[in-house]
Amino acid sequence: MATFYNLHPETPQQRTVDMICKSLRQGAIMLYPTDTVYAIGCDLNDKNAVQRVRQLKQLSNNKPLTFLCSSLSNIAEYAVVADNAYRLMRRLIPGPYTFLLPATKQVPKLVVEPKRKTTGIRVPDRPICQEILQSLGNPIISTSAHLPDQDEFVMTEKAKLFDLFDKLVDIIIDDDQEPGYQTSSIIDFTDKEPKVVREGLGWETLRDLL
Q1: Checking CA distances to 84, which of 15, 143, 161, 208 falls within 20 to 30 Å?
Q2: Whole-angstrom Cα distance, residue 75 to residue 102?
Q3: What's the pLDDT at 157?
């Protein structure tokens, strides 16, 4: 059974955030709200926890995992950000965008796309995510909360979502908001020109900037 934590959506209680982060440092995996959909996550630097997330989603090691960073400067620790990427990213951050970038050695091998050595990174526009990132001091894995045998957009009712994951994760975070149903837009910055891989939430804004 997962431990449930209720956090205020705009001003998350610091004591509760600290308790969550303590568990994450000890290898916990969590179900938590982002600015797109509910996600499954853990501390980026906990190898065993990352492997548990992979097993839960049935992802082979050649499938990269996206993770959340707190800011653009934080991204620069984990990825190579070219000038053209920086100019566009700073206009989109924070927001519902995933950036595919060349990974630095700071990114664990279990997270990186093995052939291209790329990684997917987001900076979320959600106070709960930001508070956890700041308190934990590390990025957190963010993979959409649906299981391999489910349609990606079925689990948008929070009660059903929590019931499904209650015995699969260690922590469930509730912020009294309804789950989102749109995933992030994905922009590939690994070539000279940015390429839109997926038109998701925030696509209209992104389209106007390209």
Answers
A1: 143
A2: 11
A3: 79
Distance from C-alpha of 41 to C-alpha of 174, rounded to nearest angstrom: 14
Q: Looking at residue 155, what is its pLDDT?
A: 55
Cα–Cα distance, 68 to 128 (Å, whole number): 12
Q: CA 110 to CA 103: how far, in whole Å?
A: 12
pTM above 0.90, yes or no: yes
C-beta of residue 152 within 8 angstroms of C-beta of residue 38: no
CA distance 189 to 75: 13
Q: How far apart are CA 21 and CA 5, in angstroms?
A: 12
Spatial strand order of the sheet with 171-174 comes to 3-6, 171-174, 30-33, 38-41, 143-144
The per-residue pLDDT for 63 is 87
Look up residue 123 and give its two tokens.
């900076």
Q: Coil, strand, or helix at residue 111?
A: coil
Locate the DSSP E strands across 45-133: 66-68, 97-102, 118-122
CA Rg value for the chain: 16
DSSP string, 14-50: HHHHHHHHHHHHTT--EEEE-SSSEEEE-BTT-HHHH
- How far is it, in rounded angstroms, from Cα 14 to Cα 96? 24
Q: What was the pLDDT predicted at 72?
A: 95
C-beta of residue 120 within 8 angstroms of C-beta of residue 159:
no
The parts of the chain modelled with pLDDT lower than 50 are none
